[in-house]
TrEMBL record:
Protein name according to UniProt: Trifunctional enzyme subunit alpha, mitochondrial (Trinotate prediction)
Any GO CC annotation of this UniProt entry: mitochondrial fatty acid beta-oxidation multienzyme complex
Domain 3-hydroxyacyl-CoA dehydrogenase C-terminal per the UniProt entry, residue ranges: 1-91, 128-212
Domain of life of the native organism: Eukaryota
GO biological process: fatty acid beta-oxidation
Source species: Myxobolus squamalis (Myxosporean)
MF-aspect GO terms: enoyl-CoA hydratase activity; long-chain (3S)-3-hydroxyacyl-CoA dehydrogenase (NAD+) activity
Amino acid sequence: FFSTRVLFSALDEYLIALSNGASVNFLDFQLKRKGFQERFSVILDQLGIDVALDIVKNLSSVLPTFQVKILQSLHSKGALGMKTLKGILQYNTDFPENQYPLYMKTSKEFSSSCNQFRGREKSSYSDYVNRIVFRIVNESLRCLEEGVVETPQSVDVGAIYGLGFPRDLLGPCLLVDDMHPRVVIKILERHYEDTKRDGFLPSNLLTTMASNDTKFYQK
């Protein structure tokens, strides 16, 4: 449940960026440069748009504002991902399994869905990537706070090996320790001010750590 919940918080932010006009291929490229191990578009298409919709429904209590309309639009157009050779991306039966070109054509169904639900938020690609990183960090800490996972080690290992979180960032909890909770709170508050999305409201755990000047991994 931890991996699914945190992954879908990141996918929410990813879909918001695309609905605001970000290029699928270029955003995927920037996320890969940051160190994410998988293309977000391919993750969704491999999972299946129909399956993703079921997961979003099950997560509605913790991710109530997920960008579900784009997925619903894709579903209504029969673009269910790799199983139909079209989802976010257009697939070709000649592609070797799990080997996809650096540039892939966005499906016309996805392009029309984004145009239908076009957002007005204009940001840089560095902001889009940064928001995805810190949505993952914040949602991971909420899971730890709520007892979904029991230890910071479980969060960091789960994020890196279960979500493909950038290894250079060490893991959500180690990243917070490295940057300091107060710095992370300032970053989250800036993103909240820019977007007004609740996913950037600092978790209670993070706020407590900043007040008490504590870390996850005490030396």
